[in-house]
Every structure is written in C-alpha cells, then in structure tokens.
C-alpha cells in the first residue's frame, strides 16, 4: 500500500482520505482549518455525511489516517480544495495555487500529484508549470509528450453527490486525465485500490472538460424545469402535475423545479465553460440566468403575500442548497431568506433539521431565528417550502391549510 497526502479535508477530501485509509493506505490529511484537523483526529467529521462517521472513526483508530496543518512526504498527493469563481465570474484558482505551493517542497522522484478539484480546462497544465517553477531540480511532464519524468501529474475529478458520498466513492465510474499516458496510468494505480466502477483514462484537458460538461448538463436541465414553473404560474397551471404527466412519455425525463440551483458544483462549474468560450455558450449562459433568477422570483412570491398581513411572520422550511444535507454553499433558499428578511424587516423563522445554528450571513439579522417545525407552523402567517428535506415530506398537509403557502419544491402538491 502507498502513503497518500490529501490536501483539503472538506466535503470531498475527507471522505476520500477516510476511504483510502480503509483500503490500507497510510493517509495524511492536510487542511489549514486547525479546528477541523482537531475534530478529525478525534474521529469526528466537521460536517454531516451518511456513513462518514463510521468510516472516519475506523481510519483514525487504526492509525491509518492522521490530520495535520502541513503536508507530509508521500507517494501520492491529492488536491481537493475549493475552486470558486471571483468577480466577473472568473475562475478562482487561488486555493489550487496555494495547495500546489504547499506540497512542492516535499515532492520527490516517483511521486504522483492528482488534482481532484473541479477546474477549468488547462488548470492541470498550469499546476504542472507552477510545480516546475518551484522545483527546478525535478523533471515534470509536458502535455502529451512522453519522456522521463520525476513527478507524474493527473486530473481525476470527483463525481460524488452529497448525501451519498461514501457509496459513490466506491461505485461511481471515474475519469483519470494525465498530462501524459504514463501520468494517467500512475494515478490509476491508486484509484484501482478502492474504485469498483469503471475507470477511463484520457488526457487532463479532456478530463477537466468532461466534469464541466456533466454539471452544465444538469444545470441546463434544471433551468428547463425552473422555467416551466414560471410559465405554469403565469398560466395558472400546476407545474408538478404537468411535469408528472409529461414524464410518462417514454423519452421525456424532466427534472423537478426548486428555489434555484445551489451547491459548489452545478451553480459554479458552467461559468468555467462560459469564461473559456464566451461567444459559443449561449445555451449554458441562458440556463445560468434562469437558475440565478429563480431565488428572486420565489422571494417576490413571499413578499407579495406579506402585504396581506399587518405584522406578518414568515417561516422558511429549509436553507440548505438541496435536500437532506447540511451544505449551504450557493444555497438558493438561503438567498430567499436573506432577501425577505432584509427587504421588509419581517420576522423570519428558519426551520432546517440539518442546520444547528444560523449561518453567518443570517446571524446579524435581528428578525431571523432558527426554530423547530412546530413553532414555525404555529407562529407563521406565511410558510415557504424551499427545500424538500425528508422530514418535511412527512408533514401533514392539512396542518397548513390556514396558512399562506409558497411551495417552491412541490411538498404540498
């Protein structure tokens, strides 16, 4: 078995590190968050993910996983750090650059560096050039040019879904894109130790683009569903019933509309393609515009209802970006709560079984409170269903007949 250093112990890095440890690898997890490092070393994940607790506990207790704030000399380095976008919708690769600089001093001949972070096309090549500048004493690969190298470099984008990460780390097909064929093969040696799905080898630029395609495909299809919800509202139709009936066609599979599209992947990655090819991405750009505008549309539905009441109380059921997770990154429901609370000063009660404290953006608002479902139901005049958590799907619809309801996710359908 190999020694592996995983840089970035967030939603992707930590499950990956724990999984590698469960397969017998010696794993060092590196993260700048000292609190997260402390929690991990005590066997506690710093976010909720089904089955992760059990996997992490075993990895720590067996001594195969150690978290620290600095990297360690290893055979493989996996970079699993955020790749957000910055002002002007430009890709922000500062975390990748920082991780690259962090591992450069401990690299040695025979090592393999794998970028798992979803990245714009060309990021793996740029990473390689950055390592080459930092370590001129080592030979690094040139894109698609085979030859003797000291350090192999590849891109293997993650493909897991929050709420099913542990299972999908094992079962999902993986794509490994190398700077050269030998780089891809070297990375494959690590992934074949735990991935039961099919693994396809290609070049790093193709691998980068494929991951962006996958999330852009989802974004475009979600935009279609969200646009249908706007059309149905304008025409006085039930979008949930209409989609259900349309999906009974053997070649139609429309997704479900919501309060928007969130999360670090689907809401972000299409922008990488748009930035790379701005003239030829009209459909992808239009989808982003539809999905970006949906939280404001939902907010307007709630705000319109507040005029019916002298001193209205709004209950928001859900603030995470999708059902049954605690992740609030790019959450459209969170944007709705912010808009309603800030624009009107209306008292807003937040209900979310996966969130145990208000996020920072809401803590400074005196008119927002985190409460349980029953308190919200009793005190609210307006109820907004923004996330379809499983606990919400069990609620008795009859209990909300005397409320003004905005149902963005079809819980009352």
Please write the CATH class name of the largest domain: Alpha Beta
Give unreliable regions as ranges.
none
Question: Helicity level, as a percent range?
Answer: 40-55%
Q: How does the helix and strand content classify structurally?
A: alpha/beta
Shape: globular
Terminal-residue CA separation: 52 Å
Spatial arrangement of strands, main beta sheet: 3-2-1-4-7-8-9-10
Q: Main beta sheet: strand number and arrangement?
A: 8 strands, mixed
Report the C-alpha radius of gyration, rounded: 23 Å
**Mean of residue pLDDT values:** 96
The H-level CATH homologous superfamily of the largest domain, spelled out, is: NAD(P)-binding Rossmann-like Domain
Q: How many individual β-strands? A: 15
Oligomer state of the chains in this structure = single chain
Please give the count of helices. 15
Per DSSP, what share of the residues sits in E-state strands of 2 or more residues?
Answer: 5-15%
User: What is the CATH architecture descriptor of the largest domain?
Assistant: 3-Layer(aba) Sandwich
What is the name of the CATH topology of the largest domain? Rossmann fold
N-to-C order of helices and strands: EHEHHEEEEHEHEHEHEHHHHEHEHEHEHE
Number of domains: 2
